[in-house]
Each structure stands twice: as structure tokens, then as C-alpha cells.
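Target protein
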Amino acid sequence: MNYRSLAFLACSSLLFSCGNESPPAAESSTETVIEAEENTPVPSSESEEINGSEDAAPGDTLFVEIEANDQMKYSTDRIDAYIGQVVSLTLKNVGEMPKEAMGHNWTLLRKGADFQDYASKAMLAKEDDFLPADLMGEVVAHTALLGPGESETITFEVPEEAGPYKFLCTFPGHFGTMQGLFFVRQ
């Protein structure tokens, strides 16, 4: 009898104490993300020049610098550009691991290209630095495969068709986290 009373008391206190808890972490973090997005400051003119400017004119040059690291991350996952712009993109491998283990490149695929198919075939194209020769028609622009401390600047014209384009690192296994959106505006 004493055991049943103790068990009842323990269960009752547990049930009543659960009613005053704060919302689960997932709910409060979602609210935080939404709040942060609503309070995001308007970009300064300097960041607009780097990420695309409302005042862009055909022939203007958009300068983009992207860092790639040993955590398989690009420093940006979105680039906004306008039809008629020229892009000067610099990729810097700021990692320390050898190129054979953690090489990075930046590859922009044409609009509508099959992202998964390209990434899968790129993993098998070691002899071409993971840029499959038979799929170069799917590529708008790309850098070379870079080792630690290396950088490369490429220049290309923004595609003539507005909309989203995908970019990725084609080194095996990297495209899962090293990808982003190149958004072309009119």
C-alpha cells in the first residue's frame, strides 16, 4: 500500500510539473529565425555591388569573391546578377588539407541542367578534375580544381535567360553542402 501511494505521488508530480514548461526548442528556434529574417537590415551600396545592384547596366562588372574551406562550405550560397552583366568571380581555397583530399572548384550549371545527374557523373571524372568532358554543354562557367591557399579568378557573361541557376563544387562528396543559387534578373 505504501509503495502504491509513493508511485501515485511521483506520477502526479511529474504530470503537473510538465504543464508549466516553455515551448519545445524547435518551436522557439523557428520563431527566432522568422524574427531574424523580418529584421534583416537593408544592404548597403557596397554589399549591393558585390551581390548585384538595382542600378546594374549591361556591361557592368559584378565582382564576386567566394571562399571554400575544409568544412566543405562556400562563404556564400546565393549570387544575384543581371542579364548583360559581366561577372568577375574569384574562388579562394582557404583550407589546409591537400588538394587530393579536399580540392574545391566552383561550377555554374546552365538553367534546367540535371543537378543530381551532373554531380553524380562529376564524381567519376577524376582525370578531368571532376568536370566531365561529355557534359561541358551543361556548364556556363567554372574554375579549376584548387588546392589549399590557391585562388583563381574567372570572367564570364551572365546568361541571357532570367531565373535560377545552380552552382556547386564537383569534388567527390562536396556537392551536398557546397552548392548555391545564381539568380539572374532582368
